[in-house]
Amino acid sequence: MFGKAYIRNLWDYNYRENGIAFAIVFDGIQADVPQCTLESSISDPLVGEDLTFTATTIREGGSNMVYDVIPFELLYADSQSPAITVKVDDIEALCVGLNCDYTYTIGFGEWTAQTLSGKQIMLTGADLPTENFDIIFGETSCDLNTLASDGTNAECTLLAFPSAGSWNAELRSNLGNIPMNVAVTQIDVVGSVSSVSPNTDLNENGGDTLTITGTGFSTTSSTSDSGRRLNGRNLPAIISNNVVTLSDGTLCTVVTSTDTTITCVTEPLNSASIDYVNGYDITVETYAVSATGTITATLYGTKLDSDTVTPNSLSPILKQWVTVTLKSDYPETLSNTNQFTATLVCTDVDCDYTPTAMWINSVDDGTKSMTVKFPGAPSGNYKIEVTSAA
Known about the structure:
Structural class: mainly beta
CATH topology of the largest domain: Immunoglobulin-like
Largest sheet: 8 strands, antiparallel
Helix content: under 10%
Distance between the termini: 89 Å
Radius of gyration: 38 Å
Oligomer: single chain
Strand content: 35-45%
Number of domains: 4
Mean pLDDT: 82
Shape: flat
């Protein structure tokens, strides 16, 4: 038995006259050390009133623990097969009997061709699964009630129209993916645009919500690091895989999308090429594939601008009422505050201010004006963007 021992005061008594408690600590001795006891000397006995001696073994790891707790990273098992690592809430877990082995299943089958007609997808090959499988194509999967396979042809009806782009299918079974022959040719899917609403009286200042119907639209989006700034930091931008543009290059920012419908909000049009007569073609690109067909939308006959903002200079720290007056020929009737939204937007180049909604308190159709609450903002130059729900 190797190791070392040292004395540790347990400080059970504040005064030595009342007693003393100490422990003999055996360090590095990996064995159950016998109980030590104290006995008074025969030649020079301890003297005191009602002297008592007690002794116990302190087991910091519990009554069943002789060795120190073994760090997890020092535990190994004699694994005869590839092993997996298991974590629960990012904490490594032990497998039953320290056995995390698994065995590979030898792949089977191969599909060599794919065909698509509308939502109907078929894969042809050999030794294809006849149950417990699914087909993924163009960001959509099968209606499980339509799956069918005879081992040579596996087919189904997709839940949605596939997104425009060039795609290969994935054939998945409960034992993993079924391999695809390298000679398989991708299927090109081209979307279509059939209608847009509204398609008249669009505002050249932007802010119109357009609903576009067709096929081949993507239902997913991606993120970018080049989003807007907030409190001095960049926020990720959510980027739709559908891009909607007007014929002058103006974007219509996608808000929602399904496989057949897109809603987007128009940006201000290019002021150098405003066309009140011929209107603007609207196109959709999904994964850089342009949809077939374009829809033409026309503008309102004149520019819809506000006329004045009063007052036009405000304290940055005070909340104040501001009156926004529209041009006298504004075509809509100002009937209620829910008819419009007002947003305070900083126009300085290096401004970190996040566009903020302003409360509209009242509207007056007689003067074509509305009263909004300025919420306070850092010093700078700002504009108030007013958008009509119509």
